[in-house]
Design goal:
Chains A, B: Keywords: Kinase, Transferase. The structure is a homodimer. With about 325 residues, chain A is of the alpha/beta class. Chain A contains twelve helices and 13 strands. In chain A, about 50% of the residues are buried.
Chain lengths: ~325, ~325
């Protein structure tokens, strides 16, 4: 029941109002696989350059991530430089050095081709399709994307979306993809593209999950300290997919619990730079925060015929 | 167990991407009292001018709102002109004609002075304090404000906040009042000013409620059609206070249910211009949407010792 993730392993240089990190460990596949590793076995397909230190490889290995799909190429590792203001919802990209990632053509090792759970992190939708074609009978496929692909390769992206089960994007991307300001209408249009479950991330406002027959709203955990939102989306996806793969329960109830576990993981991740918080995270903390989400959102229902009690006495 | 509300009864001229309304019925006390009237008896203190039509008075009377505190003065009624773009979270004020509202000095009729529930809608905090001094032993006092008072009369506002039980403001106002970008820290600072319960409205993202010992997050109802957000905050407050006054239950559980009823009322209000949707709203719809909020937010808890299930198999 393990997960295969295809995405980036990278260096990030990040500036927030609370500090900065230079050449710290980052990348969508890194955040995803570290987060998912708390729930299930993960195999990773990505590329790094000659400058990628053994220390980071050892960390991923310590999380039991299968790295047979991590290739090392001549040249430098993908490096993203970004900055956040006090509005931590929006990153400002300062520099993007694709380096070895520029010629990345994901080749799925034979041992991974029967993966049951597949996460296509944010890469060129044409590459996402190549990956899909190499994986035999995945039970659940989820994918992410970004504004750059929505504007530069909308048709390729739509072909991917029509083939996956779960599409995970942020609010602005949902509006951009559909040209629809109303988020519910945008969601309906995206479901009409052929995806079964649509998850819309709203940063500090939480997550909405849409299917043909239901909508689920989960808040983000209200935190007093948010140091670095980098990787929150991939950490969310890792917790979400990790829980699904662990339980095998893809019913509406199972998907909702997975959303909360994803939100739990993301809430920890933003508490420190890079993957520092995930590195010192334990199972008990994950459980405790899941329960905090429960008490954060719980309210009593109303009995039938409560209507009488609504009217003025 | 009725409620007394002090605020504005006004004309609004509104433009949204979906249409426009000229000189339609508006005002904080109007929205509040109409919404609360679905739950309890409401008495209103406000002022209108000679131009205020009998038709609007008759509507409020039809909702059983006690209008002995509605005074009619020489001059014109308060008139607000505003505009919304596709981002319906933010109104742009085009014109504000205070008219008779400029010299409004709320005088609470004797018959209202023993009100148990009091809502101080968004007016000059010095006037809010005058109202507080005229009401004898209210059980629950809630108040609203706006950015204008936060910048022009911060000290007067803080004196009011220290005297009320429940403070209802929006996200930007919470940040403005405290100079604190992090909303949880801002909330703690506002609780330290002496208020017991702080409700932070986040527009289409819902509501957070803070007390010393708990946090509650409620989403807004995801709507396909949002025509006019005007009055959503006061409609929320009306449903919230109305439910509290109806049940008398101001426990944490009662406050949470009240938050959902407030959110239900606000979700209806934005579906049409002015108070048009509230005018045709029925109890059964209110109950149904409350239940929709329940299914929108519900997820299963986890059993003790679930941690084992989290670890990779």
């Amino acid at each position: 029941m393990g997960i295969l993730v295809v995405g980036s392993v990278a260096f990030d240089s990040i500036e927030t109002p609370f500090g900065r990190g230079e050449h710290v460990l980052g990348g969508s596949a890194t955040y995803f696989s570290t987060s998912a590793s708390f729930f299930t076995d993960v195999s990773l397909v990505a590329v790094v350059g000659e400058d990628f230190p053994e220390e980071h490889v050892a960390f991923l290995r310590s999380r039991n991530v299968d790295l047979r799909g991590l290739s090392r190429e001549q040249g430098k590792t993908f490096h993203w430089k970004g900055k956040y203001g006090y509005d931590l919802n929006e990153a400002q990209t300062l520099e993007t050095h694709l380096n070895v990632f520029e010629s990345f053509r994901p080749c799925i090792p034979d041992a991974y081709r029967d993966a049951e759970y597949l996460f296509l992190a944010n890469i060129d939708p044409e590459l996402q399709m190549e990956v899909l074609n190499q994986v035999e009978h995945p039970r659940v496929v989820a994918c992410d994307t970004m504004n750059f692909w929505i504007s530069s390769k909308p048709e390729a992206l739509r072909r991917v979306v029509a083939k996956v089960d779960i599409f995970i994007i942020n609010e602005g991307e949902a509006r951009q993809l559909t040209g629809q300001a109303n988020l519910v209408k945008a969601a309906r249009q995206i479901l009409d593209m052929g995806v079964k479950t649509l998850i819309i991330k709203r940063g500090e406002y939480g997550v909405l999950m849409f299917s043909d027959s239901s909508v689920f709203a989960a808040p983000a955990y209200p935190l007093e300290e948010v140091f670095d939102p980098t990787g929150a989306g991939d950490t969310f996806a890792g917790g979400f997919m990790g829980y699904l793969a662990n339980t095998g329960d893809i019913s509406e109830a199972g998907l909702r619990q997975a959303i909360i576990f994803g939100s739990v993981m993301a809430s920890f991740n933003v508490e420190d730079f890079s993957l520092n918080r995930l590195k010192r995270l334990g199972y008990r903390e994950i459980e405790e925060r899941y329960r905090s989400f429960k008490s954060l959102t719980h309210f009593e229902g109303i009995a039938d015929g409560h209507g009488g009690a609504l009217a003025p006495a």
